[in-house]
Amino acid sequence: MASVSSTSSTTLSLSTTTSSSLGSTHLNSTVGGLDIDALISATIAAKSLPITLLQNKNAVLQAKVNDYTAIKTALKTLQYAAKDLTYASTFTGRKAVSSDEDVVTASATNGGTNGSYTIKVSSLATITSNTSSALTTGTKASVTGSAAYDSAAITDGTFSINGETITVNSVDTAQDVIDKINASSAGVTASLKDNKITITQNTAGAASTITLADDTSGFFNAASITEGVVSGTDDDARDGTKASLTGTGTLSNLNNVIAGTTVNGVAITTGSFYINNKSIAVTSTDTINTIANKITASGAGVKATVTDGKIVLTQKAVGENPTITLGSDATGFFNAAGITQEALKSGEDAAQTRPLEDVAGLESITAGYFSINGTFFAVDPTKDTIESVIKKINASTTAGVSAFYDTTTHKISLTSNLAGDEEITLGTTGSTGTDSSNFLSQIGLVQSNQKLGADAVVTVNDISVTATNNKITYQGNTFTLVGAGTSTVTVSDDIDSMVTKIKNFITAYNAAMDGIVTKITEKGDSESTDASVGDLFGDSTLRSIEQSLRGYSSIVLSSQSSTMQQLSQVGITTGVAGVYDLAQIQSGHLELDETKLRAALVSDPDAVKALFGNTTVNVDAEAVATGNGSTKTYTLKYGADIIGDPTIQVDGVTYTLVDAADLKPYNPSPSDGSTPVTTHQYSFDSKTGTITFADAPANNAKITANYDYDVSSGSNAGLFVQMNSLLNSYTQYGGILDSQMGSNGYLSKNMEYNNDRIADLKYRLSQEQATLYTKYQNMQTTLQGLQSQGSYITALLASLTKSSS
């Protein structure tokens, strides 16, 4: 401890404020050369050890909760797999195989009758239909230019040169026709010379000729070439001359390049014009036909054609909208072609999309109703369209028909939803239906247009049967008719499905056992930082689950057939009999002999079903009692566990069950004229398992009972019924595992308690830390006072020494 004397002084240094780990604000200081922060931190750290121990405990507890949760999940999966094997439907599954699915396809439901079914389909059922009259169609918007191009231009057709036919059409340019001539076998060459067409024979001499004939295209006329024969000459030249001719017409009449020329007195220049906001460019090499092709391909939704020498623009889509909108034109094309916005002829919407009152021929439809197969539909001609009415019909669940509008024939068709001779009854028949709106009569849907369907003609094992909509339900199986012919359908137990479910169980069982065995045999490791290592070593809860699960492989159900009393009899074992396998024993795994399982499922599926999932036992002729002539009430052996009603016999006579309030003594011939009672009666109380007779059985009469009783919670229950019950006790909400790891379980409560202790210890240490800093601060104040006094005494002594000298 620092000391103060007249010959020395203690220096006190103060620094900025800091915060401790527990949150208290203090002065970082030294007192008499001591590091106060270090002293207090060491003190608090030493006293924080209980907090660290509690936190470590909570880490282990949380690890246990996590491990329990994982095991609970595995047990839940096992429980679901085990429960799946208790359902009767697991063992009544059927599969159906057709020898020819082009004739019949088949599906077998649970409980369907196994067997072989020969199905002969002579004809399929057809569907009843009715078709309306054709409706007026819609039109497309169009613009036709007023100026004619190429009055002498070529048209679709042919001409011949030297007997060789050349085919041309109206969209061919002059160059196109020249190319066709040169590619032909006419023996001539066509070329351009001085903007005119020249045709020259390929061989020289007077014998070489060019014969022009049979022009239906107007090509010769447009090129000013005269039909006939032109001959070459023999002259002094070695090779002579070749026959040739040159037309006098210019290419402007042959759809030649138009850019930069004058057409109909109007110049067309290079540049662009717009249709429906799409730009079409005109180049120096374009012809009327290439411009038309550009318009069609532009994406403007417009098709351009040349008709009677005029440009025609036609909207590709039917209807009032979209339309054709002409934009700016820097080429003069619109002007030259005489195309104006005013020349637009608007299209009309298709008949099926217009209000009924706007469709030609349907003006007489009024607001009202029409009916199909007794189902009524409302019609408003100002709002409804053909499409909206069709939607109403197709949305109906009672009309039993489907409606369709054919955009090619412009007719409405009705077809029955069921195949066969199903009548489609229209309101126009005037029976129970209606056509107050005139809709059916106006569109031409009348009863006389109906084409009645026909039923399928089919036999099953040579027995004629009736098919509904080309489907047959026979012995619990469904056969769908596909086409004419004969097919054999084989229905059998779905063994594959059963085996798959049993394999799923074994997989889930082994996974659960792995999780449990791993944790209960895993020892702790002092060097490990993983809190889960060894956290459940030897855990009694898990050990109990493990032992219970292992036990199912050896349980014998004596109430079942002697050939099917334990799992090994269906091929489910813990290993090969007589073979010692330590690893197999330790793992607790189950193994499956699939061959043995399949054999059991084929030979006696009901016995396998009982071994796995039995929940009832039948009592046959239980000896209830012997009558004494006075006792009317008796209790059956299995009382309230009885399922359904028992059958009671007295000396072999079967009695009649009635409600207790209706019990009447046997009296076949009443003397008072009342109603005879010709049966021996009894009542049954299912809550207590007691029977009460209307007449007490006679003395020494033998009373026997037949009934089923519930064993779902007893040792006679199927193995997987018992397993499901066991697993449920562990996995259910609030069950055994939840008592450990649930929100209110032992582990959770311990962690909650530890957290409270940790919070309390932290609070106390923060208070102690604050107290320690207060003490050291007081010490600082005291030392400062002593330091001042020491300085004063030193100064005083120095003064006295000076004055004495």
Description:
With 805 residues, this protein is an alpha+beta fold. Helix content is 29%, strand content 26%. The protein contains 16 helices and 41 strands. The strands form 13 sheets. The protein has a five-stranded antiparallel sheet, with no helix packed on it. Strands 10-9-13-14 form a four-stranded antiparallel sheet, with helices on one face. Strand 23 and strand 24 (375-379) form a beta hairpin. Helix 2 (49-84) runs antiparallel to helix 14 and helix 2 (49-84) runs antiparallel to helix 16 (746-804).
Brief summary:
This is Flagellar hook-associated protein 2. This protein has 805 residues and is an alpha+beta fold.
Secondary structure: elements and pairs:
Blueprint: E1 13-19, E2 25-31, E3 34-35, H1 36-47, H2 49-84, E4 94-98, E5 104-108, E6 115-123, E7 129-131, E8 142-144, E9 157-161, E10 164-168, H3 174-183, E11 188-193, E12 196-204, E13 209-213, H4 219-222, E14 228-231, E15 242-246, E16 262-263, E17 266-267, E18 271-275, E19 278-282, H5 288-297, E20 302-307, E21 310-315, E22 326-329, H6 333-337, E23 368-372, E24 375-379, H7 386-395, E25 401-406, E26 411-416, H8 439-443, E27 457-460, E28 463-465, E29 471-474, E30 477-481, E31 485-493, H9 495-521, H10 540-551, E32 572-573, H11 582-587, E33 591-592, H12 594-603, H13 605-613, E34 616-626, E35 633-635, E36 642-650, E37 653-654, E38 656-657, E39 681-685, E40 690-693, E41 702-710, H14 719-731, H15 738-741, H16 746-804
Parallel strand pairs: 38-39
Antiparallel strand pairs: 1-2, 2-3, 4-31, 5-30, 6-27, 6-31, 7-26, 8-21, 9-10, 9-13, 11-12, 12-15, 13-14, 16-17, 18-19, 18-22, 20-21, 23-24, 25-26, 27-28, 29-30, 32-33, 34-41, 35-40, 36-37, 36-41, 39-40
Helix pairs in contact: 1-16, 2-9, 2-14, 2-16, 9-10, 12-13
